[in-house]
Design a protein that fits this description.
Chain A: It holds the Pfam family Oxidored_q2. The complex is a heterodimer of chains A (115) and B (607). Chain A is an all-alpha fold and 115 residues long. Chain A is built from three helices and no strands. By secondary structure, chain B is mostly helical. The chains are: A mainly alpha (115), B mainly alpha (607).
Chain lengths: 115, 607
């Protein structure tokens, strides 16, 4: 298997973090965080991939059929997605509160918390 | 069975309170939460007494080590001790919040119980991916608790910064765990460690590039939690705005758990494959920067938050000294830190309750009617300076001894400087708030005999709490006192068991034997001995420096900041620069995080 999926995973993570660093909008920053996390999905799936293998669904699989990809990383990816949904929902709710209380969601216009 | 129960009891209680809490009276909710936490504390104490002799391991769902895919919970004495500290701090925080909040929904108790469950599960788990899941559960609950009073603008801002930075770190940790799995096909700490020794070594028995990358990525998330420089920016933002009982848990145990994560992952899986010097460098930087920032604050909760950055930096250095001796010292230090910091935050909460502010200038001289709170601040400052026989004293002495054997001559000056600055700052608060004279108000109004309500003034801060409790109820006073007493006596914990526990923790084969074979290892151990002459001398030097710093700060304030020497101007410019660095801008924080990963990778790579 080629190295391309690993490079893609690293690229997605870096693009996501770049987005957060340069973000002018908290909603945008939270979405960039989800992008960063998508990099880990690609990495996990790339690790479990095998050339010529099929999906790890065992119910209708004939005995001695084609090999399957690694189900463990797929389970990890699913868990990761659940975690990501929780984090994104919570952070978006906080961003809505920032917009309501401060009247802006530009991180540059939020006053420093340092006194 | 005990280990599963320790995790399950708070989760079940949380589920119960989440569903039925809105119809239950406040008293029932409080009692149910306190009982659940007390049960966890009892279970953790039971585990702690059994762990040195009987293997405390359970494989979930009956998938034992022979199946190859099982997920273990394992408690060695250190893990059980940490779980006990976590439960006791949660108990103190819940008792304190009983009267602290005027009105509080059951969701607060639900979150606290989930927080406890996540922390205990994170401590006990013997599996890398489970560690990530519980780490994330702990983080998400922490974001929600930080933003609990979501009507405050700065609260949601602090919670959002905390959430984004912590999540980036956690995703990098997951990427590192994925790399370990890619190399070994294992997720268990012990099994992956065995595989790595077999396959992960390049020439000379050191880890190759992939192992190094995996370790750096895993450490990133844990270092964000442990607030090493430059990952520490979220910490003060979150601590300043989180409800005070929550700060007790954040500072006391959640941040040190990041250090625990690094220590556990290193010794169970990566021991000997990667160097720990990066951890030592970033930890030392945190110890210094945190201490300096601590002195520059006048918001008491932020001040305490930066002192946590500083002290947890010392914990990181202790772990990086990679030996059982230094680790035994770190354990003492952690116990002392948790108690002292918990007590100080609770005392700050009492000030907030009485005066609606935690600004040191506004509070000047207004603490005279609160003798117990004042004594807590004084004893807390002495504890931070390492008063014998506190846990911090024992930690300093034992770690110092181990660091000297390594040839780390810089450890003692670093520890003294960090402790003196943080203790000096707290001592300054005590002098100003509890011994000073009020700036503009009539002193008679503050007469302790009358217990008069001081006017809230213009600078009030939080609707966190009821306007004023006339006398602090025992539920708000006793938790802090008990925590403080425990911390100040923690150095009396006998050195033999602590040394044995540290030896067990730092023995990779021993951990594998415990988890996989159910055998309690008994590696050769040296009892920790806190009572060294240099330890006592270190305390005296620290105390002297702290007193000088505090008195100097109070004098300078009294003379109204006159005096404009070059030194004073340079100090003012540096302080302004440091304040500007902690900008509260999420993009800056993320950029610093990236730089931190680069430094970590450079220092960990063997060229």
């Amino acid at each position: 298997m080629s190295h391309l999926p690993y490079l893609a995973a690293g690229w997605i993570v870096i693009v996501g973090i770049y987005g957060i660093v340069t973000s002018r909008d908290l909603i945008h920053a939270v979405v960039c965080l989800s992008v960063t996390q998508s990099g880990t999905y690609v990495l996990l799936l790339a690790i479990g991939y095998r050339d010529g293998a099929t999906a790890p669904v065992f119910s209708d699989r004939p005995p001695h059929g084609r090999p399957v990809t690694d189900p463990v990383v797929q389970a990890m990816t699913l868990t990761d997605i659940v975690v990501g949904a929780t984090v994104t929902a919570l952070l978006l709710a906080l961003a809505v509160q920032v917009a309501k209380r401060r009247g802006t969601i530009d991180p540059g216009e939020l006053r420093s918390l340092e006194s | 069975m005990i280990l599963q129960l320790t995790v399950a009891v708070p989760i079940l209680a949380a589920a119960l309170l989440a569903t039925a809490g809105r119809w239950l009276p406040r008293l029932v909710v409080d009692v149910a939460a306190v009982l659940a936490v007390a049960a966890v504390a009892a279970l953790a104490a039971l585990t702690l007494t059994r762990a040195p002799h009987h293997a405390q391991v359970s494989w979930l769902g009956g998938w034992g080590p022979a199946t190859g895919v099982g997920i273990p919970l394992a408690a060695d004495p250190f893990a059980a001790g940490l779980a006990l500290v976590t439960a006791l701090l949660t108990l103190a925080a819940l008792l304190f919040s009983w009267r602290f909040f005027t009105e509080v929904q059951a969701i607060f108790h639900t979150l606290m119980l989930l927080f406890l469950a996540a922390m205990v599960a994170y401590v006990y788990t013997g599996d890398l991916f489970d560690a990530f899941v519980f780490f994330e559960l702990m983080s998400v609950v922490a974001f929600a608790l930080t933003g609990y009073r979501s009507e405050e603008p700065s609260t949601v801002h602090g919670a959002l910064n905390f959430g984004i930075i912590q999540s980036i770190g956690a995703y990098l940790t997951l990427a590192g765990i994925a790399l370990v799995y890619a190399r070994t096909g294992q997720l268990g700490l012990a099994t992956a460690g065995r595989q790595l020794i077999g396959t992960g070594t390049g020439h000379g028995g050191h880890g190759d590039a992939l192992v190094t990358a995996a370790f750096v990525l895993i450490c990133t998330g844990y270092l964000v939690k442990a607030s090493a420089v430059p990952f520490h920016f979220w910490l003060a933002d979150a601590h300043a705005v989180a409800p005070t009982p929550v700060c007790v848990l954040f500072s006391g145990i959640m941040v040190p758990l990041g250090v625990y994560g690094i220590a556990r992952t290193y010794w169970a899986t990566f021991a000997g494959l990667v160097p720990l010097r990066a951890i030592a460098v970033l930890g030392a930087a945190a110890a210094l920067l945190g201490a300096v920032m601590c002195v520059l604050q006048h918001h008491i909760k932020r001040l305490l938050a930066y002192s946590t950055v500083s002290h947890v930096g010392l914990l990181l250095v202790g772990v990086a000294a990679h030996g059982p001796g230094a680790l035994a010292g770190t354990a003492y230090y952690l116990a002392g830190h948790a108690g002292v910091k918990g007590a100080l935050f609770l005392a700050a909460g009492a000030l907030l309750n009485r005066h609606q502010t935690v600004d040191e200038h506004e509070l000047r001289g207004r603490g005279r009617g609160m003798p117990v709170t004042g004594a807590t601040f004084l004893l807390g400052a002495l504890g931070l300076a390492g008063l014998p026989p506190s846990g911090l004293f024992a930690g300093h002495a034992v770690t110092e001894h181990a660091a000297e054997e390594l040839g780390w001559w810089w450890f003692t000056p670093l520890a003294i400087a960090a402790s003196a600055l943080t203790a000096g700052a707290v001592l300054r608060v005590w002098l100003g708030v509890f011994r000073g004279t009020p700036a503009e108000e009539d002193p008679a109004q503050e007469d302790p005999a009358h217990g008069a309500r001081p006017d809230a003034g213009g600078g009030h801060e939080d609707p966190e709490t009821r306007p004023t409790l006339r006398n602090l109820p025992w539920t708000m006073v006793s938790p802090g006192l008990v925590l403080l007493a425990a911390a100040l006596l923690a150095g009396l914990i006998p050195g033999g068991p602590v040394g044995a526990a540290a030896a067990m923790f730092t023995d990779r084969d021993g951990y594998a034997a415990l988890v996989l074979d159910g055998r309690v290892p008994h590696p050769h151990s040296v009892p920790a001995d806190p009572w060294t002459a240099s330890g006592v001398a270190g305390f005296l030097a620290t105390l002297l420096l702290a007193a000088l710093i505090a008195v100097h700060a109070v004098r300078r304030r009294a003379s109204d900041r006159t005096g404009g020497g070059i030194l004073a101007r340079a100090a003012a410019a540096t302080s302004a620069r440091l304040h500007a660095l902690h900008s509260g801008h999420i993009g800056d924080y993320a950029a610093w995080l990236t730089a931190g990963v680069a430094v970590l990778a450079l220092l960990t790579t063997r060229f």
